[in-house]
Design a protein that fits this description.
The protein is an alpha+beta fold. The chain has helices at residues 2-35, 70-90, 143-152, 169-194, and strands spanning 41-52, 56-67, 98-110, 123-137, 157-164, 197-212, 215-217, 238-251. Helix 2 (70-90) packs antiparallel against helix 3. The longest helix has 34 residues, at 2-35. The radius of gyration is 38 Å and the shape is elongated. Pfam families: SIMPL. Keywords: Signal. Residues 1-32 form the signal peptide.
Length: 252
C-alpha cells in the first residue's frame, strides 16, 4: 500500500507541474501579433499627358486585279504592284518602309439561275488576285503625293492611315514626371487635411496608356478619278498618357 501511494504522488506531481511549462508557449504567438502593426499609409494616383506632333504615317495599300483565269489575274497584279513599288521608291521611301502584308487568289463564282429543273453548283467565271502593302512615310509632307502616285499606278484598295511617332521616349518621360508630380501634390493635400506628415514612398506602379493616334480613312479611286492636286493631309497631334499609383507612409 505504501508503494502505491508513492506512485500516485509521483504521477500527481507531473500533472501539477505541466501547466506552468505550457503557459509561456501559449503566450508567445499573442505577443508576436501585438508587435506587428500595419503601417499607416495613403494611396494616390497621378496622371500626366504630353502631346506631340506625329512625324510618321503608316498605311495599308492594295492592288486587286481580275481576269478570266488565275494566271492572267496574277500577271496583271504583279505588273501593277511592281509599278507601285517603284513609284514609292522614287518618292524617297526606303526598302525597310515597304512590306508585303497580304496576298490572296480568290475565284469568282456565278450562280446558276434557280428556275432550271436541275440544281447546279456555282460556276467559276474568273479569278481575283489581291496584293497588300504596308508602308511607312517618314516625311509627312510627301504623304499626299505618295497616295496620289500609288492610286494613279494601280492601287485600288486601301484602309486607315495612322499617324505616329518614331521616337516618343522624350514625350513619355515628360508625361511620367507630370504624373509623379500630380501624385505627390495629391498626397500632400490629403496628409495636410488629415493633420499628419507625409513620409517615405512605399511603392510606385506605372500604367502607360497607348497613345491615341489620329487615323484618317482613305478611299482609293481609279486613276481617271484622281484630281491633279495632291491629296490634303492633316496630321494633328498624338497624346501620350501615363498614370502612376503611389503609396506614401504617414508620420503620426
Amino acid at each position: 500500500m505504501s508503494g502505491l501511494r508513492r506512485f500516485t504522488f509521483a504521477v500527481a506531481s507531473v500533472v501539477w507541474v505541466a501547466p506552468f511549462v505550457a503557459l509561456p508557449l501559449m503566450a508567445t504567438p499573442a505577443m508576436a501579433q501585438e508587435a506587428v502593426r500595419p503601417e499607416a499609409a495613403v494611396n494616390v494616383s497621378g496622371e500626366g499627358e504630353v502631346s506631340l506632333a506625329p512625324d510618321m504615317a503608316m498605311m495599308q495599300l492594295g492592288v486587286v486585279s481580275e481576269a478570266k483565269d488565275a494566271a492572267a489575274a496574277l500577271k496583271a497584279n504583279n505588273q501593277a504592284m511592281a509599278k507601285v513599288l517603284q513609284a514609292l521608291k522614287d518618292k524617297g521611301l526606303a526598302d525597310r518602309d515597304l512590306q508585303t502584308s497580304g496576298f490572296q487568289i480568290t475565284p469568282r463564282y456565278r450562280q446558276v439561275p434557280e428556275n432550271k429543273a436541275s440544281s447546279q453548283p456555282p460556276v467559276i467565271e474568273g479569278y481575283s488576285v489581291s496584293n497588300g502593302l504596308t508602308i511607312r512615310v517618314r516625311d509627312l509632307s510627301k504623304l499626299g503625293g505618295v497616295i496620289d502616285a500609288s492610286v494613279a499606278l494601280g492601287v485600288n484598295q486601301g484602309g486607315e492611315i495612322h499617324f505616329t511617332n518614331e521616337k516618343p521616349d522624350a514625350a513619355l518621360a515628360e508625361a511620367r514626371k507630370a504624373a509623379m508630380a500630380d501624385a505627390v501634390d495629391k498626397a500632400k493635400t490629403l496628409a495636410q487635411a488629415a493633420g499628419v506628415k507625409l513620409g517615405r514612398i512605399i511603392s510606385i506602379n506605372e500604367n502607360t496608356v497607348r497613345p491615341f493616334e489620329p487615323a484618317m480613312m482613305m478611299k482609293t479611286a481609279m486613276a481617271r478619278d484622281v484630281a491633279p492636286a495632291p491629296m490634303p493631309v492633316a496630321a494633328g497631334e498624338n497624346a501620350y498618357r501615363v498614370t502612376v499609383n503611389v503609396s506614401f507612409a504617414l508620420e503620426q
